[in-house]
Amino acid sequence: MAKFVNEAKELLEYAGGKENIASVNHCATRMRFVLNDVNNADIEKIKAMKIVKGTFVQAGQFQVIVGNEVSIFYNDFAEAAGIDGVSKEQTKVVTKDNRNFIQRLLANLAEIFAPLIPAIIVGGLILGFRNIIGDIKLIEGGTKTLTEVLQFWSGVYSLLWLIGESIFFFLPVGITWSISKKMGTTQILGIILGITLVSPQLLNAYAFAGTPVDKISVWNFGFAKVQMIGYQAQVIPSILAGFFLAILEKNVRKIVPEYISMIVVPLLSLVPAVLIAHAILGPIGWVIGKGISTVIYSGLTSSFGWLFAALFGFAYAPLVITGLHHMTNVIDLELMARLGGTNLWPMISLSNIAQGSAVVAMIFINRRNEQEKQVSIQAAISCYLGVIEPAMFGINLKYIYPFIAAVTGSAIAAVISINSGVMANSIGVGGLPGILSIKPQFMLAYAFAVLVAIVVPFVLTTILSKANLQLIKSYKKAKA
């Protein structure tokens, strides 16, 4: 029997029935509806459902927060509603007129990186674990690392690098593949384009800065020369190249007769795309990426870095509501490529922890309310493990004051992180396990920032709860 069949039927009824649903799909934690008429949906009853952690409208979509089991719930809902094959592409067609340019840009970025995030997170954890066993001196009175003492860990250290290198050095392959998949073009061509950006025949991107210009190999076409430079771990060049190939292939396919398209379209798409990628788009993307990472890093490490950190720490959770937080994936990856780490991601992880800590305070405050505790405990655990939506939408935004306490604690923790120079190897699990992605020399400072992100929201939520209760009593007394 389906796990959520009853809840699915309830949601279908409260959403206005099948005839009111133009489109529906889901992401990691949310059901995304496009309703023919939002007024036909009983939003208050939807919010009151036990499985629902919250609702909101974004870019023309009515979104229902379900949590980690959303994929199971979606399948049960689709069966209960008799809806088959409702895809994200269909939803985008329905909602495209409701989205402005920035919303469409961010949606595209989110869709490009969504399939890659699990690999990037695994890569961050692997690099962090390698640092623990290979760089932190834990053995023989703090004089040797595990890899120096035990051959087993030395082998593990070497093996893990194979995975870490594959994820980050060859990231352009994943990006160009993901773009081709999103654009509905030939995915193998996207993969091949990505491989040409990281081919061993090219000068490694990490060696480019220290190589004299006259030592860089070129493709000599007689009238022009193109440097043979690789784009390992480079994000912006890969995005530009991937979209160029996809757009070119779509246009070529329009003019090539169907009976020769299998031969002609790949040839006329891939060859020009590879040439343009290396001659024009790669160098342009390199400059753009370097500019972005330089500005962000300079801002965070300047004398006003604390102010930037405070603003970012305070604003990140609200950005999640708007979808603007997806832009941070690009920035983090650019910082990693240029600097070998990112000081932005630790603040994101701290923001998640702060939201979870505010929920823990609500658990303490409502400790005699069993129904509230059940919802809050699940939300807090998810948040501490990096899934923020159930906690934020289901609890903190519902009561407002826990959200205020959380973003305040996040801002303070972010300032501590930046002032301590904390750097992460890469994006990791955005919660308590995130410490594994922090560079070893900054783990202690980051642990202190985590402590602040736990304590401050908890204390503030408790204080604000009492103040809120007093205001309610005063209001009721005045009304009486």
UniProtKB/TrEMBL annotation:
InterPro entries per UniProt: Glu_permease_IIB, PTrfase_EIIB_Cys, PTS_EIIC, PTS_EIIC_1, PTS_IIB_1, PTS_IIBC_treh, PTS_Sugar-Specific_Components
The keyword Lyase is annotated on this UniProt entry: no
PTS EIIB type-1 domain: residues covered: 5-87
GO annotations of cellular component type: plasma membrane
Source organism superkingdom: Bacteria
Pfam families: PTS_EIIB, PTS_EIIC
A single BP term in Gene Ontology: phosphoenolpyruvate-dependent sugar phosphotransferase system
Keyword Repeat: no
Membrane topology designation: Multi-pass membrane protein
Positions of transmembrane segments: 105-129, 149-176, 188-209, 229-248, 260-284, 304-324, 344-365, 377-396, 403-423, 443-464
PTS EIIC type-1 domain: residues covered: 107-476
PANTHER family xref list: PHOSPHOTRANSFERASE SYSTEM TRANSPORT PROTEIN (PTHR30175), PTS SYSTEM TREHALOSE-SPECIFIC EIIBC COMPONENT (PTHR30175:SF4)
Stated name of the protein: PTS maltose transporter subunit IIBC
Organism of provenance: Clostridium polyendosporum
Phylogenetic lineage: Bacteria, Bacillati, Bacillota, Clostridia, Eubacteriales
Gene designation: treB
